[in-house]
Amino acid sequence: MGEENAAKVREILQNVAALMMGLSNPNLHLVSHVWPLQVGEIESLSKNEKVHKSKHWNLLTSLKYPKSYSDRAIQLIRGASLALPATRVIERRYLLETRLYVGLGATAWELGLAYLNPYGIPWIPGSSLKGAMRASLIYRLLEGGVSLDEVEAIRRGELGVAPAEVASKFADRGEEITNAVKILVDLFGTAKYRGRLVAFGGFVTSWRGCSPIRPEVMTPHYRRYYSDETGRTYPSEMESPNPIHFPVIGEGTTFTFILAVPEESFEEVVFLLDETLTKRGMGAKKSSGFGIFRRVG
Question: Kind and range of the H or E element at 125?
Answer without folding.
Answer: strand 121-125
